[in-house]
Structures are given as C-alpha cells and as structure tokens.
Amino acid sequence: MVQDNDSQDSGTYRRDVLKYGAAGGTVLAAGCLGGSSSTDRFRVFDPETSGTLPSQRHCNPFNPTQRGTWHPGALICDRPVMYSPAEVEVYPLIVTDWEMADDTTLEMTFSDEWTWHNGDQLVADDWVMQLQMTLSILEFQAEDGERPHQFIESVEAPDEQTARVSLYDPIPETVAIQNATADILGDEGRGIFTKHDDDQWSEWHEQLQNADDSEMETLVGELTSEGYPKVEDAIGNGPFQVADIGDNVMIFEKYEDHPNADNLNFSEFSIHLFDTDIPTQPYVNGEVDGAHNEFPVKDDVKSQLPDGHSLVRENLSTNKLLTFNCGHNVNYDTPFSNANVRKAVCHVFDRQQVSGVLEGVNQLFDWPPCRVPGTTLESGSHDAADWVEDFTKYGQNDTERAAELLEGEGYTLEDGQWYTPDGDRFEIDIMNGSEQKHIGVLKNNLNEFGIKTNQEQVDDATFDERRHAGEYDMMPDTSSANGVRAMWELDLVPTWIQSITHFDPNAEIPMPVGDPEGSSGTKTFNVEEHIRDWRISDDDQYHRELLWWWNQNVPQMEAMFQPDAGAYNGDNWTIDGPDGIVHGIDDALYLVTKTDEATMEYTG
C-alpha cells in the first residue's frame, strides 16, 4: 500500500542521478552509453527516483534503502519461480519442478543449467541460504511464542538440486510455493542474490545461525544497512550482466551461458534515468523503448504515443480509496469509530460525479467495497464477481439511507445541518488529498448533505505519523490491487491496513453472507486467523466472509481504480507469452527475457 499525498507518484518512486562507474567491461563516455538510436538494445525507463547514485546502489535484499535489488537486480538475477498474483499461477524458472512430498513438506527441484556470471554453478544452497537468513531475522524480530513466519518453519538443501521447505501446517501447493518465494523482508522475491560460497554472504549466514540474542541486534542492524554488493560489483545469474554504469544509464550485456540466451535476438538491456519521475515524455520521444508502469496515460497524451504502443501488466491495478480512522485502540475522538457513521458517509458519496474527472487514466470502481480488484470484477473472472451482487454498494448519493443510519446513532438534522449526539456540529477533518478530484466530489456531497468538512494538508512525515497514531478522521490512500489473493496477504490487511485504519481485528458479521439484516444471526472471527484459515484450507467460504466483513465495516471504500500497466514500443519490439507472465507479474519486462515460457525480440 502506498501513501497518496496529492501527488500521483507520492511514495512510489525514487529520483536517482547516476554517477560514473564501471564493472566487467570497458568504460564508455556518458554520451556513448545512452544508445538513443541502438537497434540491439532494449531501453527501459528507471522508476527508482530517490537520488541514489548507481555507484551507491546495492543488491542486498535485506537493506531497504538505496537498493538496486529491483532495478537492476530483478534483471540481472533470476528467481526460483515466477508467481503471478493476478492469475494465482506459478511458472517455472530456475526451479523446474515442485511437489508436496507430504502434507507439510514442499520440495523444489533446481535446474542444473543456471550459472552465476563468473561461471560458477548455481545450486539450491544459494537460494536456501537467502531464505534461511530471512527466517533467522524474522525469528529475532518475533515476539515470544509467535511464529517467525506464518507458514514456513525451516528450509534446507539435501543436495545441489533440491530445496526442502518445512511448513507448520498443511497448505495448498500454490500457497506454499508462493509464500516460500515471495518478498518477505525486502526484495528477496525478485531474485537469488546470495551466493552460498561468497565470503561475505557465508559469514553473515553463519553468524545468523549461531548468534545469541545480544549479538543478533548488532548483526541484524549491520545486515539491514550494509550496501553489499554494490550493483557495479554484483555477480548475478540472469540473462544480462553488468557491463557499464554511466551518469544517467546502466548498461547490461547478454550473458551467453544463460539457458534463455539463444532465444534473445538482442544483446543489450539498458536502464535510463531522467529528471522526471514519469516515463510518458521519454517514451513518447523515443528515448526509451519501454516502461514498467504509469500507463495508460491521460487523454491529451494518447495521440502522441507510438503507432505500435503496447501494454504489459494490464491485469495489475491500483485503487484510489476513501480511508477512515476506525478508532480501535487509539486515543483520538473520531466519529468513524462507529461503523454506521462510516457507512453513512459512503452512502452520501456520489461516485458518478467522479466520471467527469477520470482523465482517461482512472476508472470508476462501480461495485460494492470488497477488496477485489476492479479488473477482476470487470472481467467476471472470479466467483467474487457474483458474490458482491448481494453486497451493499454505497456511492450512490443515497441521502435517505445515510440519514437513517445517522439518526439511528443519535445524530440530528437541524436547519439542513447535522449535529452529533453531543449536540456539536458534525464536522469531518480530511487529512490531505486537496488536489484529488474524488476527494473534492466527496466534500461537495457531504457539505450539500449538511456535514461540514475541514481540509488539512500536512507534510509527508506528519501524514505518516498521524495515520499510524490514528490522529485523523479521513484521508485518501492508494493501494495496489494485483490479485484476488494478493489483496488479502497476512502482512497486508491484518498488519499494514490495520495499522493505518485502526479497525477492530475481531469481527462480527451478519449471516448469511449477503444479508445485511442478519436474518440467521451473526458470526464472529479474528480477521488474521480467518485469512490464515482460508490459506490453509483453500475454502472460498472464508474469502467470501472476509469480503462481506470489509463491505459491512468499510475501513476503506474503493472510489476509483487505475490499470497499473507498463508499455513498450511495438513498432520495434514484440513480446508474447502467457497472460500470467506478460500481464500478471510486476517485473514483466524483465521476466520475458528469462524464460522460454515467453518471448521478446527486436523486430524493427
């Protein structure tokens, strides 16, 4: 989930300016590195824009600052498998086969065709080391009696081609492999970064296995802050290896011993930095061939796009949300500690009035609040599209229903203005979002209904501090919506969303699902346990009940959604492959170069 603080890209990108450096090849002048007219190089816009110099970027997946484990780490290092959250599908990569050896043991078979860029064989121990280090850090950070990881107990490599993952509970195979290969602490899921016989990695690994509690704090602090290895020194295992680093571009050359090298008819891949955070203009100007995200574009830019403009990651999206402080365990007096008051505001909102300000980028989330991606509901590709037909929709400017809910909670309407049960003017403080069109629509709707709104603008640090402390009434938010299961990850809803919306983790919902009156009574559950039970059992009933809880408690309301696609110039390049890879994985532009499951070729 990303803070949305008026700016479309707030909290999402980094501004980087590259500095001279080189590794593994002849140093080239900066002007020669650009390759603006190259036909043998795929040029990509770099969305990392925080001011981190490439000479300072590193490939340490445990250090979240100045990292290069996304760009370019996800290019130069391969991952065990490719997991598509949009399709809930696992595709092989270095791991060619996997099976549940028993109810709680996942065995993964690593190919013997992968080597590190120095020629050394890549083995299962390389990845096992990375996951063992992750589990050790989690164990140190866990409270007494807590599981370090929700599902994974341990991992070992019985031989060079086998990794054995032991699980706490029996869980479905896809859930097991997705959890084992996902980002857990940082960017581990983007590739295998730890070479088991590298002196530094092996030293850290051994220390993590053997350190006592007093030593662990210093060790974890070191590991999560060290910039090792620098990108320019990184030895990867993917289809491209570091060639040269310039002041505004990083160049990578094809690694001829990669298993997919023969399928690539181009020899270089470059990542380019610009003054702007948004790739639109460099892409339109032909300075890059592709970009990872920020598409589609606004209507006034569409005519400038290349004739062969094509999208990737089309099944991924982001939601624009109305977010409430639900008031659980916070010392702040907010009207939204009452679910019916939250519902009333959601009923007052007139979603259709947002239609005129979509600008060709956003789409109305024209369904009930439910934490299901708009792209999924639009396509009807999941049973949830049928479930939500019985859910409360909100967003219809249903002022009659809103008034019923408020009056039921002791609010009164006098001379067109609403008053709280204490007799005070009903006022809502909205933290940030002053330039967001859907927030403007909501404020107009509330003011016309008789609820006063106060707009507050605070800086990013204050915004983050106050939302975590629960010191606000409402705020906007932007959240990724990249898959039916992905939207209910254990580290997302019961951890992150609860930490900023402060909902009560113990839920009560009317039954049966779809009946807001609860003609069959109610059901109580803990949200985190319910998500875990869904994962373990793979029973959709848990999922359906979670959606209904969200709809009836509305910690957040989806107002709009935006396809979060990337793009490439199809005049000169062709990308083809399964939807799950091309349109369902974050790093699609990197992944299509790695596997024979998909193809990428220069055709210009």
Automatic annotation (TrEMBL):
SUPFAM superfamilies: Periplasmic binding protein-like II. It comes from the Archaea. Residues 89-477 form the Solute-binding protein family domain. It holds the Pfam family SBP_bac_5. GO terms for biological process: peptide transport. Signal peptide: none annotated. PROSITE patterns: TAT. GO terms for molecular function: peptide transmembrane transporter activity. Keywords: Plasmid, Signal, Transport. The keyword Ribonucleoprotein does not apply. InterPro entries: SBP_5, SBP_5_dom, TAT_signal. Belongs to the bacterial solute-binding protein 5 family. PANTHER family: OLIGOPEPTIDE-BINDING PROTEIN APPA (PTHR30290:SF9), PERIPLASMIC BINDING COMPONENT OF ABC TRANSPORTER (PTHR30290). This is Extracellular solute-binding protein family 5. It comes from Haloterrigena turkmenica (strain ATCC 51198 / DSM 5511 / JCM 9101 / NCIMB 13204 / VKM B-1734 / 4k) (Halococcus turkmenicus).
